[in-house]
Amino acid sequence: MRMRTFTRALAIGALAVPALIGCAGLASADEGLDANFGKGQFVANENGAGVADTNSVVSPDGVQHTSFWIWSDDNGVSGSFNGSGATWKKS
Hints:
Elements: H1 2-27, E1 35-45, E2 48-59, E3 62-73, E4 76-87
């Protein structure tokens, strides 16, 4: 039963992340500069559940890139995360 609950939470999170990123892009649209890219996927089946995402953002505050994946099955949970970014001071 715990696996099913985790799978549902993972699927909901996979659906919510792109929406949150999209809202962040709308919020910074008033500032002028805004560019972003996102690609994600998820799977939930009898073998386990997993999610992966890659996104990049350029905004008036700086640049950011993240990439991650998470997989859960009968053997446990595993994953990886990479992120980088830079911010700059506004004049």
